[in-house]
Amino acid sequence: MGPRDRSGEGALDVVIPARNEAARLADGLATLSGVLSELPVLATITVVDSASTDATAEIARRWSGPVPVRLLRCPRPGKGAAVRAGLLATTAPYTGFCDADMATGPDVLPDVLAMLRAGAQVIIGSRRHPESDVEIYGRPLRRVGALTFNRLCRDITGGVTDTQCGFKFFAGPLARAAAGELRTAGFAFDVELLVNCRRRGAAITEIPVTWRDMPGSTFSITRHAAGCLRDLLRVRAAARRTVAAPPMVPVADELHAG
């Protein structure tokens, strides 16, 4: 990649939403920081403690490694709420988020950074990409639920094949503008976030990833399916209300969300 540039220009801030992730966070931070430390730009990690009741916050606070880690508290539960808080707290030119368990391998981050520096606005991991290496879901009910949810999401997001992979990166100003309008606190937040980016004229690029179905997921079909469907229908209704409006100009300058 050429000489390593450790100036602030081109810095990347990676958000990790974490609710009761004490059992997995340390390994996740070690894996992610190892990749980020090899990038040709400054990189940081923001762990968002989403109303955890275990030692998640303490692990993040005491973490020491090759990449700076900061802790952000989010008293409101919900992955969407945590991602929103994390993205709005960033200031870097490039930002994004990934899951604490590193189910999506972060080894692709050098390519993601190169694409962002070349002008890409939204880059998301896709388990449906033909070149992805994906471990099949071990739980049949969850697999069926994911397939059903995916079909409902495609028309809302303009054909995105995998809205729910927890690996998404953005031009920083766009991420903060889109997150500022995010109202979905639960697991369907990804759809609304991508819709908000689309409304601003941003193209969404899906890339192949390595993905493993990690034990310990907090998502439950029985507990969360109804709420996800309700949120999805609300996002679709809002998207349809704005479909006739002129497209917004792509974000070029830093936007500050209140």
Key features of this structure:
258 residues, alpha/beta, Spore Coat Polysaccharide Biosynthesis Protein SpsA, Chain A, seven-stranded mixed β-sheet, 8 helices, 9 strands, 17% strand, globular
Describe it for me?
With 258 residues, the chain is an alpha/beta fold. It has one domain: Spore Coat Polysaccharide Biosynthesis Protein SpsA, Chain A, CATH 3.90.550.10. Helix content is 38%, strand content 17%. The chain is built from eight helices and nine strands. The protein has helices spanning 25-36, 56-62, 79-88, 109-117, 140-157, 172-180, 189-199, 221-242; strands at 12-18, 43-50, 69-74, 94-98, 122-126, 133-134, 167-171, 204-208, 210-211. Strands 3-2-1-4-7-5-8 form a seven-stranded mixed sheet, with helices on both faces. Helix 3 (79-88) packs across helix 6 and helix 5 runs parallel beside helix 8. The longest helix has 22 residues, at 221-242. The radius of gyration is 17 Å and the shape is globular. Mean pLDDT is 85; it is low at 243-258.
Query: Number of DSSP helices?
Result: 8
Fill in the CATH topology.
Spore Coat Polysaccharide Biosynthesis Protein SpsA, Chain A
CATH class: Alpha Beta
Global morphology: globular
Structural domain tally: 1
Instruction: Provide the spatial order of strands within the biggest beta sheet.
Output: 3-2-1-4-7-5-8
User: How many strands appear in the DSSP assignment?
Assistant: 9
CATH homologous superfamily?
A: Spore Coat Polysaccharide Biosynthesis Protein SpsA, Chain A
Domain Glycosyltransferase 2-like: 14-167
Organism: Actinoallomurus acaciae
Keywords: Glycosyltransferase, Transferase
Enzyme class: transferase
